[in-house]
Structures are given as structure tokens and as C-alpha cells.
Amino acid sequence: MLFGMNWGCLSFLILFPVGIFIWAAGEKRRRDALPTEELKELEADEDYGAIDPVLECIFCHSKNCVRTKQETCYVEGDHDKNSPAGFIDLCTIAAARARPQEEDRIKVHCMNCGNDWELFPPEETAEQSGVKN
Fold this sequence. Notes:
single chain, alpha+beta, 2 domains, 4 helices, flat
């Protein structure tokens, strides 16, 4: 079975999973060494993004507890890809070889009340982008 396999391919198939395992073990040790408060802060930063000191929660009206994370969503029609109707749209688009539109959104989460909402980033004007007419 191994006679037709390239040695580089074989070494990759062996060493890549070993490298992933070593990295995951190191990451687990690093997270276990962190104090509880720092670990919660790190996980919240990974899940919801950094705290934005300017934004105020639209539900509880508190400041310095709103986290923002910019994401790109692929939208076609009235549905996004995360809904069942959007998945069906995405499949029909792929079958037709059309490309769905990319749409930038800012996911926002309040750490005080736990509510989530989305913002659309402001449109860039010609003056901000540096384009001269």
C-alpha cells in the first residue's frame, strides 16, 4: 500500500496531526495556567470581540460593557446564509454558479444584559477613501 505513496506525502500525513496535537496540548496548558478572571476575559474577547468604550447598550443603556466584532456575511436575496431559507438560496446560487453578495456587519454584544444585535458599518465617502473626482 505504501509503495506508491510519496515520502513527502506520507511524512505530512504523520507529522501534521502530531503538530496539531502538540499545539492543542500547549494551548490547553496555557489556558489552565491563566487565572479565572483572565480566562473569562480571553474567552469573551474571542467570542464577542473587544470592548468599545464609545458604544452604549441600546437595551440597558450602560457603557464600557459593549463588545464589537466585525464579520462578513454572504447575503443573496432576503435571507442570510445562517437561516434555512438562506441555505437553500446559497445552494441554488452555487448551482447557478452565481456569487452571493458580501455584506460587512458589526456584531455587538452587551456583557451587562447579555443582548446581541447587529450594526451596519457606516458607508465610506469619497473624501474618506481618498478618491478625488
